User: What shape does this take?
Amino acid sequence: MVVGAAILLAVISMTLLAPFIAPRGPLQQSLRTRLRPPLATSTDGSTSLLGTDHLGRDIFGRVVYGGRISLFIGLTAALGASLVGLTFGVLGGYYAGPLGAVVGRLTDLQLALPLVLLALAVVALVGPSLVNIIAVFTVTSWPAYARVIRGSVLRVKAVEFVEGARASGAGEPRIILRHILPNVLTSVIVLTSFDVARMIQLEAALGFLGVGIPPPTPTWGNMLADGREYIRDAWWVSTFPGLAIMVTAAGINFVGDGLRDILDPRLKE
Assistant: This one.
């Protein structure tokens, strides 16, 4: 977990400090310096740390600025999906009648569809934009949360302290808020931590397929798409955003593993 936290801290710090550490803005073009390799020095004496792309834009600047968009989408979409999934999961698990059956069928139906294809179809239908992509990721990802949380609620509501609270006259809202939710939040936190990395990778996949955030806004997925035509002659254009995705996802997964071990020590056995 320490390694993952260090990686995440470094990535977040670089994205927040992008205006101060990036030598050039992510949209600044210079065709005279296009496809310069890493550490190449331009005629004006400036050095491109990670090289330039086909429009002469600085790769380092685009990676750190693009990290802002990718991290924001990953975190916001994961939180939105967790809140929606938590709501449906708790209601479907506690009221295990017709409502529970409806929630169960909805989650099974949506989980049967490939997530990437579903997100691709919806984004292509509503149009690519930051708000639309976050909304699509939220709508297509909540069933995974609902299914896990519904199972946890079914288990927790049969425990003695819940039966005791019900026998003492506690109302259903109090039982849900005071006894059910605290015992399922561990699963929500762990699932959300892992889902942030998945959302970042999904955004990169949509950007690579051309239905992500519209250019020229830099995202790691758009940068991968820009570099695929130059992979033989200018490998750095797509390699460094790919490394950024890999390192960030690894750091988030390390943190998720650590949170899982801390919040549920029984998993260590």
